[in-house]
Write a structure and sequence with these properties.
By secondary structure, the protein is an alpha/beta fold. 42% of the residues lie in helices and 25% in strands. The chain is rod-shaped.
């Protein structure tokens, strides 16, 4: 059997639908903006292709044959599905639908990421944002192997096969029990922390906070006292409230409040954040997401710079 559908033009199906509705090739041609002979010839070619007459021609116009009635029902369904597919493909190509897979290191409680996600989701409600928490090594590997579209990380890492761009900075805060002597200070500096005991999580971002503490306190000639705890961030905050030690956190996380602790700004400290992605990523929704991120970064730099 020869492949009928491969030779049937979508436009010919439109000719059939409009001609059936108007019961006239002439009126169908006027509605479609083509010559009457174009409609007549197109329908004739379609009839020849499928081997059955769809219309009976008469002096007053046209009417569907029995075969034409059956064909019309299937044709309406087919055109509806094709138009739906074309609209869906177009929306996906423009990044209006789909998914963006995001690796995060910081909190979504407040700050740049929270603002970005709110703005992007408002403009792109049909795009799903999928989040994975983790550290630098885990996220970089996922981006390199295209399991993740973009990762937001601290610092300015150089990642093989990836592009990076600095987007925002966050201030650094010490997390202190309410009854600690430093809780009465408006701001503190590294010298105030030189003799303190610190808590970090075993999981990310604990190791990075550990290295951060070692670097800055070592510059004061101190070997920091750092305890690794096998708990998540929320329970770590509760251990701080119990007086087990202090910890550090970034500005975005201060949007989440925990009983028994206070956040104190660490003077002069700022933590840069960047986006890491693969230049071979062809996900349109991701490209729109990065465009929104750059736009927000420029706006905030202008506002707060």
């Amino acid at each position: 059997m020869k492949p009928v559908l491969s030779k049937i033009a979508l436009q010919y199906l439109r000719y059939v639908l409009v001609a059936a509705d108007r019961r006239s090739f002439r009126q169908a041609a006027a509605e479609l903006g083509v010559w009457e002979s174009t409609v007549s010839r197109g329908i004739r070619d379609l009839e020849d292709e499928i081997g059955v007459a769809l219309f009976v021609r008469h002096s007053g116009g046209v009417m569907l044959t029995n075969a034409g009635e059956k064909f019309l029902g299937h044709a309406r369904t087919a055109i509806g599905q094709i138009e739906y597919a074309l609209k869906g493909a177009g929306a996906a190509g423009r990044g209006e639908v789909g998914m963006v897979r995001i690796g995060i290191f910081s909190s979504l409680a407040s700050g740049f990421l929270a603002d970005l996600l709110h703005a992007y989701q408002a403009e792109n409600p049909r795009v799903r944002l999928d989040f994975t928490e983790g550290g630098l090594a885990q996220h970089v590997a996922a981006v390199q192997h295209h399991r993740m579209d973009v990762a937001f990380l601290t610092g300015a890492p150089i990642v093989y096969g990836c592009e990076t761009t600095h987007l925002w900075d966050e201030q650094v805060f010490a997390v202190i029990p309410h009854d600690h002597v430093l809780a009465r200070c408006e701001r503190i500096d590294w010298d105030d922390l030189r003799d303190e005991h610190f808590l970090v999580t075993d999981t990310d971002p604990g190791p990075e906070i550990h290295d951060y503490l070692v670097k800055h306190l070592a510059e004061l000639g101190r070997h920091p006292s750092v305890e690794r705890c096998g708990v998540g961030r929320d329970n770590l905050m509760r251990l701080v409230a119990l007086g087990r030690g202090l910890t550090l956190t970034s500005e975005a996380t201060t949007g989440a409040m925990f009983p028994g602790i206070t956040y104190k700004l660490l003077k002069t400290e700022k933590l840069p954040f960047c986006a890491v992605w693969s230049p071979r990523n062809d996900n349109p929704a991701f490209r729109r997401f990065m465009s929104a991120a750059r736009t927000l970064a420029k706006q905030q730099a202008t506002t707060f710079g």
